[in-house]
Amino acid sequence: MLRTHMTVTTIRQLMEMKIIPCFSLHRKLAGAVRWRSSYRQPPVLIAAPARALIDEQISIKGRFLPPHCPVTVHSQMHSEDGDLWEAFAHYNADADGTVSLTRDHSVGGSYSGCEPMGLFWGLQPAPGAREGLRLRKKNVETPYVVHVSLLEGHVSPSEEQSNELAAVTTERWYMAPGVRRIEICQDGVVGTLFLPPGTGPFPGMLDLWGMGGGLVEYRSALFASRGYASLSVAYIGHKELPGPQNKINVGDSYFKSAFHLLQDHHQVCADRIGIIGLSFGVYLTLRLATNIGVKPSCLICINGPVGSTIKLSDDDGRTENFEGDQKYWMYDDQGHVSFRAVSLPANLSPESKVKIENLTCPLMYIVGEDDLSSSSIENADLIEETLRAAGKSQLFTRLSYPGAGHLIEPPYSPNSRASLWSVKPKKLITLWGGHLAPHAAAQEDAWKKILDFMENNLRQ
After folding, report:
1. What GO MF annotations does this protein's record show (predicted)?
2. Which of 308, 438, 283 is nearest to 371 (CA)?
3. Nearest 5°: phi and psi at 396?
4. I need a surface site. Which of 201, 202, 255, 265 has the fewest CB within 10 A?
């Protein structure tokens, strides 16, 4: 009687000796091959570390694949609003049956080349998604949960027949373990304070965003995860602030109070506080830094103007309605609006322009050269020229990034070239600019240099 552990070679020999009839050869061969393949290690997908901060790289590797086989690596996640975001890339396994995103080059998909974090910064709304989406973390006490899968062949994730070989889930956090989140409603200031683990005292950062409004916390949470007390402040479009919400109804005293609130905290180094601003937050940062009674140790300005892009209603910095003056709004062929011309230095009201020559602390200005929302290059030029004329060139550092847009944020987060600005009185999509790969490279480089700048000016 024949035993089931016979090899393929043995079966062929017995057939030639006419001990096994020819018609049974194929069934015996198939059984032997299935027996051998059942002991092959199935493919696995590894992400290390699987739980990490948003600015940390992770290593993604597929193993136990057939040599040189084509595969697709696919990432997907749901935003807090329930929208599906995804990215994918095509790879070819090496002779050992391994694919490593830190070593290998994508040959197609959402990105190409060696991009270890392309599956994260390359995330875009899935086909059929709502128009004008932008990915922003609202609840920083929960992570982004990203599902990464390994698919057979070079496929598009939308193809229904794609065969999943392996999968892994990763968590991307803005808050490190031990970081404390404290809601602030004090001295009229509305914000959120993030404190690093431990007793301190810690150097601090005052965090100012743009005219999108509300209270944006994720950058401050990440600063605290890197050892800085950080206070994110709301100043427009928040229910706890004076209305109406499409105007800035707080003035210089409000921002001074926010700075002093951070400065007076018992776990903060009072003489080691910086200010960071993005977009309109740049104007507020510069205005506050030249205000009597406020002495920051350093400033970080990202793609913003030296004066107000909205007509001021008083000398204290309050503004008129944002939509009130649309003279410099520009529209593309799809009806999407660019605010870039609004912030050209020549178009800013002279009375709102900050006296840059009065700055006394180091300033880092970050430029996205494809910024479609702010005239960042022209404003950086004006700051540089003004400081040079005042004999203060040593205070100025410029970082400039070709292909990067307006929203230069912490690294490995995806860029939106355009997104929904408002729905009333009419639906409006605004242009931010930036192309995925160069924008991602800019965010990674700028973040490292921001942390170095803070280290040099707030810790030493």
Report:
1. fatty acyl-CoA hydrolase activity
2. 438
3. -105, 130
4. 201
pTM of the model: 0.89
pLDDT score of 424: 75
Residues tagged active-site: 279, 371, 406
Strand 298-302 versus strand 268-278 pairing type: parallel
* Single-letter residue type at 215: L
Q: In angstroms, rounded to a whole number, what is the distance separating the alpha carbons of residues 194 and 215?
A: 13
Q: Report the alpha-carbon distance of residue 167 to residue 150 in Å, rounded.
A: 6
Element (H, E) at 299: strand 298-302
Render 179-200 in DSSP notation, one character per residue. -EEEEEEETTEEEEEEE-SSS-
Whether the link from the prior residue into 203 is cis, omega within 30° of 0, is: no
Question: Within 13 Å of residue 126, how many CA atoms lie on the same side as its CB?
Answer: 15
Q: What pLDDT does 39 receive?
A: 54
**330-331 sheet: strands from edge to edge:** 330-331, 337-338, 428-431, 418-422
Bridge partner residues of 276 (DSSP): 207, 300
Q: Which H or E element spans position 289? A: helix 280-289
Within a 10 A sphere around the Cβ of 94, how many other Cβ atoms? 14
pLDDT at 273: 98
Which value, in Å, is the radius of gyration of the alpha carbons in the chain?
28
- DSSP result, 14-41: HHHTTSS-GGGHHHHHHHHHHHHHTTSP
